[in-house]
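Predict fold of Antibiotic biosynthesis monooxygenase; 109 aa.
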Amino acid sequence: MIFIVIRIDIRPEKREDFLAGITKYSAQVREEPGNLMFSCFASVERPDEYAVLANYVDQAAGEAHVSSAHAQWFFGWLPSVVATVPRIVYQELPPGVDWSEMGEVVLER
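Predicted 3D structure, encoded as tokens:
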């Protein structure tokens, strides 16, 4: 499984453009075979900071995503709305490693 986190700092005057573009792009990515999750979140402390979380079943799915027409559009469009080059954490996890429960949190029964 591939796990990706991207930090995106946008230009304040481009917020509406960014939100429209990321909404369109998110819907397209979620339809890809091999995509497990794709979500964009706004920072509660910094109004111009967003985080994108993505999961793909494997490297082949990630490569198919990067070569898709909508990803190529997104990579070309993103510089028009960002304040800085986005930062990424890319982690390929070994087979069988997946989301697990957070041990520090115990539900009340």
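The chain has three helices and four strands.
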